[in-house]
Amino acid sequence: MDIATQKPRWLLRLVLSAGVLAALYAANLGVQAGFIEYVQRIILIAGINVILAVGLNLINGTTGQFSIGHAGFMAVGAYAAAFTGVKLAPHVTALLGAGTLADGVTFNLALLVGALLAAGAGVLVGLPSLRLKGDYLAIVTLGFGEIIRILFNNAQFLGAATGYFGDSPAGLPTYTSFFWVFFWVIVIVVVVRNVTFSQTGRSLIAIREDEIAAEAMAIPTTRLKVLAFTLSAATAGIAGGLFAHMQSGIRPEDFKFDKSIDMIVMIIVGGLGSISGAALGGVFVAVTLELMRDLQQYRLVLYALLLIVIMLVRPEGLLGTREISLAALRRRFRQPERP
Amino acid sequence: MSEFFQQIINGLSLGSIYALIALGYTMVYGILKLINFAHGEVFMMGAYSGYYLASWLGVERYQAAGRGFPLGLALVVLVLAMAASALLGVLIEALAYRPVRSAPRLTPLITAIGVSLFLQNAAMLLFTPNPRAYPPILRELRFAAGGVIVTNIKLAIFVVALALMVGLHLFVQRTWTGRAMRALSMNIDAARLMGIDVNATIRATFAIGSALAAAGGILFGLDQITINPLMGVLTGLKAFVAAVLGGIGNIPGAVVGGLLIGLAEQLTAGYLSPDYRDAITFLILVVILVLKPEGLLGVVRQEKV
């Protein structure tokens, strides 16, 4: 690539970002006008699932470690964001005046606090367990998820077992909208994609393929594993914050072990190590959960069988590590034309 | 002081149940390097099979007549439940672990979680999620000595667990199958070259580990009075932590770890707060992972390329 084409790239990116934001805004209006609330809710849940799956995939798929307690990080993010939002809102309104701007600022600050605390929890959990083999991480995250839930169950200032509904009788403000969910979907997918296809990402894949060999290649395995884990926990925190502001309150039982299993089903259905696969898996789980609403008690039996069967038949997941991208699609459709 | 001894006695009996379950984790891990997540559910199924066997043998009739359940029948319940769980363990191995044995380590871990979830939820559908009172296959007798109350149930737990552990030790050290297990845990490929039937030995490992878990399940039911389909989750986790604490893959280590976890749990519940009894186990896990990841009795094995 010559310099002439490289120079205006930042400008191109700026225009592109503005275009994406405008498109999101238009889509937001379209979704609000075009769908009933029930369908809107499913779309929002699908978006949150995509964030969860893409984030978890970074650690379970790309790095080859195994977290089965991500609901714990989601809970940390949800509670932190809800609490911050409630406490911050009066100050922001005093500064900016009530309105969409103040709500947006409060919401995103709250989400960032949630992500930050979830990331902190990630470091706390990851540091001791990631020095060892991946299966220890599985056990520690499982224990962590349970402990977090027990803590929130006993935290009086967060409503203990009845859940946290903020200070006003109306419950938590419902900031979460199509615009913000998919704004964060795009941010997180871009960040995870850039990490995955960077040198760091290649190092993570090397750890997945052979940790000893990676270490011999001077890859700082522990540091990178903790980094991936922290980033993954932060994305779960964002998803938790979005989830918290979708309804009037959050309860500790929203973040049970079942939730972690839902996330694992998302990435295994989609393919361990594929971003687009994880995103598809997130949508898949959101839709099937709705369809199976009447069969609640069979849901986990079916998910368990699905996990076993996929592992036995196609252990790399449905997509494997392949990505769905425009370039790949173009290649696929072009090939038959050649003689 | 008497309260302290009371906690020690309770801790030791709880700990010997953890030790029985931990043995299954450690044996499987020693050979396959797999955390058998479904082991806690085998323990739960063992408890339920004991429940149904006891009521099939008419424990309610004895109870209604005001007589204790005969000791002979109690042993029949124990042995049959152990056999049923051994079968379940072998079945799980054949269906969910053997087909993925040569796959990357993450694959059997996911199937193990799948089996565990499946058994939990199948049990909730079959047995309903409500807790059930465990049948009194041993009638409780209390002995008081110096302010310390010892029930015959706690004693029986201790004796049965001890007998099974001694039996396992003799089996592993003295029989050909036990020798084959030890060979497998050193090096599966070399063992195969020496003419050991790898599949049969792994099957035997699962059968024995699952039988011990079933014994633990029945003792747990007797000790804790109620059972429910999710009892295997937390107990299984604690037993796994016990195995890690003692040095995973190490049989005496699992026993030591189990007893220590039981003691730590009871002492925390007694002297700090019952709210923290489950948290202490995970605290121990994190501390041991940081300070001595090979466990108390484990040996450091250098990984070779």
Question: Secondary-structure map with pairings?
Answer:
The complex is a heterodimer of chains A (339) and B (305).
Chain A: H1 3-6, H2 9-34, H3 37-62, H4 70-96, H5 100-130, H6 134-154, H7 178-196, H8 199-209, H9 211-216, H10 221-244, H11 257-270, H12 275-291, H13 296-313, H14 326-334
Chain B: H1 2-32, H2 39-56, H3 59-64, H4 71-97, H5 106-127, E1 132-133, E2 142-145, E3 148-151, H6 152-174, H7 176-186, H8 188-193, H9 198-224, E4 226-227, H10 231-246, H11 251-271, H12 277-291
Antiparallel strand pairs in B: 1-4, 2-3
List descriptors.
heterodimer; A: 339 residues; mainly alpha; 0% strand; B: 305 residues; two-stranded antiparallel sheet; 12 helices
In brief:
The complex is a heterodimer of chains A (339) and B (305). Chain A is mainly α.
Could you explain the architecture of this structure?
The complex is a heterodimer of chains A (339) and B (305). With 339 residues, chain A is an all-alpha fold. Chain A is globular, with a radius of gyration of 21 Å. Chain A starts with a helix and ends in a 5-residue tail after the last helix. The mean pLDDT of chain A is 81. Chain A is built from 14 helices and no strands. In chain A, helix 2 (9-34) runs antiparallel to helix 7 (178-196) and helix 3 packs antiparallel against helix 10 (221-244). Chain B has a domain at 17-229. In chain B, strands 1-4 form a two-stranded antiparallel ribbon. In chain B, strands 2-3 form a two-stranded antiparallel ribbon. In chain B, strand 2 (142-145) and strand 3 (148-151) form a beta hairpin. In chain B, 50% of the residues are buried. The A-B interface holds A 64, 66, 68, 128-129, 131-132, 134-136, 138-140, 142-144, 146-147, 150, 154, 212-213, 216, 257, 261, 264, 268, 272, 297-298, 300-301, 303-308, 311-312, 315 and B 35, 96, 99-100, 103-107, 109-111, 113-118, 120-122, 124-125, 233-234, 237, 240-241, 244, 275, 278-279, 281-282, 285-286, 289-290, 293, 303, 305.
